[in-house]
């Protein structure tokens, strides 16, 4: 790819990644210019979803971590990119991974309970194959939605929908009256659904793939 062609906004994802791997002049600058805004937005959204007001320096560091991760191990993550899928989606997954790794080092008051964190916080080398990116994105969207709920709401949803506890068991476990459980479940579920609907980049079929 000639250097002047890299200046064109028409350079597709596959061609750009190929240019990066081949070390072509101007490829890295174009790549950062094209995707730095997207990565920054993902980082800010995740931190906001965890109840954190991150300093600008923290956001900048995390964005830098994403781009550094792409270059590590001789560009291993770049080489794993499948051009059949959007590069923006792939970068979003990597950005989430870097944010989760950073969050795990903080363990501050905004941390989610262990059962909500689950096993989705894979290291970069364990990122899903591109065919599973939509499902991975949907899982992360649900977890980001759960992060907006209170700990009691999270516990309520988990106990009812995943552990199969009935209203009486929930009332005893959470110190609530049986009559209040139904309304509490409805409020928690509505909040979670509202959070997921804000993810306009995902479809109903994406969420059904979980």
Question: Can you give a write-up of this model?
Answer:
The chain has 210 residues and is an all-alpha fold. It has two domains: 3-129, Rna Polymerase Sigma Factor, Chain: A, CATH 1.10.1740.10; 149-210, Arc Repressor Mutant, subunit A, CATH 1.10.10. Helix content is 69%, strand content 0%. Helix 2 (13-21) crosses helix 3 and helix 4 crosses helix 5 (87-106).
Radius of gyration: 20 Å
| CATH C-level category of the largest domain | Mainly Alpha
The CATH topology of the largest domain corresponds to: Rna Polymerase Sigma Factor, Chain: A
Structural class call reads: mainly alpha
Largest sheet: none
CATH architecture of the largest domain: Orthogonal Bundle
Q: How far is the N terminus from the C terminus?
A: 40 Å
- Average pLDDT for all residues: 77
Tally of DSSP β-strands: 0
**Can you tell me the residue ranges where pLDDT is under 50 for at least 5 consecutive residues?**
107-127
Order of helices and strands: HHHHHHHHHHH
Overall, the morphology is elongated
Helix content: 55-70%
Short description:
The protein is mostly helical and 210 residues long. Helix content is 69%, strand content 0%.
Secondary-structure blueprint of this entry?
Layout: H1 3-6, H2 13-21, H3 27-49, H4 56-79, H5 87-106, H6 114-117, H7 133-147, H8 151-162, H9 167-174, H10 178-197, H11 204-208
Helix pairs in contact: 2-3, 3-4, 3-5, 4-5, 5-7, 7-10, 8-10, 9-10
State the main characteristics.
210 residues, Rna Polymerase Sigma Factor, Chain: A, mainly alpha, Arc Repressor Mutant, subunit A, 2 domains
């Amino acid at each position: 790819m000639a250097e002047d062609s890299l200046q064109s906004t028409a350079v597709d994802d596959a061609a750009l990644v190929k240019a990066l791997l081949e070390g072509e002049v101007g490829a890295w600058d174009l790549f950062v210019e094209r995707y730095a805004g997207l990565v920054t937005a993902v980082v800010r959204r995740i931190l906001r979803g965890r109840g954190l007001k991150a300093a600008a320096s923290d956001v900048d560091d995390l964005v830098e971590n994403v781009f550094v991760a792409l270059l590590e191990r001789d560009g291993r993550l770049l080489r794993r990119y499948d051009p059949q899928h959007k590069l923006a989606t792939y970068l979003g997954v990597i950005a989430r991974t870097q944010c989760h790794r950073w969050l795990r080092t903080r363990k501050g008051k905004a941390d989610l309970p262990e059962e909500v964190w689950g096993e989705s916080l894979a290291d970069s080398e364990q990122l899903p194959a591109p065919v599973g990116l939509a499902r991975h994105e949907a899982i992360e969207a649900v977890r980001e939605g759960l992060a907006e709920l209170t700990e009691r709401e999270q516990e309520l949803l988990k106990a009812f929908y995943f552990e199969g506890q009935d209203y009486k068991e929930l009332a005893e476990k959470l110190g609530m009256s049986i009559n209040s459980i139904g309304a509490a479940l409805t409020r928690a579920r509505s909040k979670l659904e509202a959070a997921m609907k804000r993810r306009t980049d995902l479809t109903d079929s994406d969420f059904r793939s979980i």
